[in-house]
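JOB MANIFEST
job_type = single_chain_structure
chain_count = 1
residues = 347
[input]
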Amino acid sequence: MFLRQLCFVIAMLFANLAYAAPADYTSEMAADAEGAADSPFTGRYEGSTIVGQTSKKFDELTLPAGPADIRAKAFSKTVSQKGRVLRTLYVSPEQRSSLEVFGNYIDALKAKGFAAVFECDNATCGANFKDLKYSANDASKNVISENASTRRKFLSNGMFSKIVDPRYALLKKGDPGNETYVAVFAGQNSGGSFGDVSKALRSRVGVLIEVVEPGQREEKIVTLTADEIGNSIGADGRVVIYGLYFDFDKATIKPESQPQLAQMIAYLKADPGSHVYVVGHSDNKGELDYNLQLSAARAKSVVAALVGAGVDASRLTAKGVGPLAPLASNKTEEGQAKNRRVELVGM
């Protein structure tokens, strides 16, 4: 008898916990994420709150400009813009449809002079549009505020776990080559695989708004001289170099890297007996294998540039370690920036 009562009590405790958890998540999303604010281009749908937000003073954002291609597992067309990037994840009030919430944002943008580049809904977006646009399995696509609570992280992860009536639009405003782009992606939650998170989000419309305003990168990296490179390798066995720039998601060295390359070449020619590893590093955004491959490819590009300038190839060895040797925490944008680098390591 006692055992039966104990089992009943335990069962009730678990039932109460299960019941309480969705309420906890509902309370969490009743207020905006700390420090988050609306974009002046979009505002917000009345009664919505910001679950998460990320902001970068300068980055490159690639946005869908065509439906998803299920065979290629990619968007059929995209556009990219560099500048100030703001990504905001909203949850809308209950008893609202994706059509209503989405339509309000689009009408507001068009009233401010934005023109549609691409717009789709449901099947016209492509069968795998949602997973390509926002997936819990790809951290680079999630919108999680800095210092977000565990509950907010789960809400961001599960926002589009299972949705109905997905809708997307890309709009632009401005002169050619200097456009501001705004992308709006909305879908009504219909459950999902995130347990209590999905229960709390069920029937609510999730909205991802991405804004990129054109701008120029601030040049804040000091070019290391040949003497500074040699002194650092002599004292520490390595030197950290930030003055090398690459095309987004590629191993192509940008022209603005030439001042730093020139100093690296001068160091190697001044010390013809030196042999170094050229090591590429990355932050932890994206898949590990991909970052390892990209950092290795970038290291090889640097070696090729040095060899092309007359440095003996036998003195140089390219390696890529991706995010495996960070200089700072990857939890902040500042830390991620420190971790994206090239190092020369003495042999």
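[summary]
The chain has nine helices and twelve strands.
Residues 20 and 42 are 34 Å apart (CA to CA).
exit_status = 0
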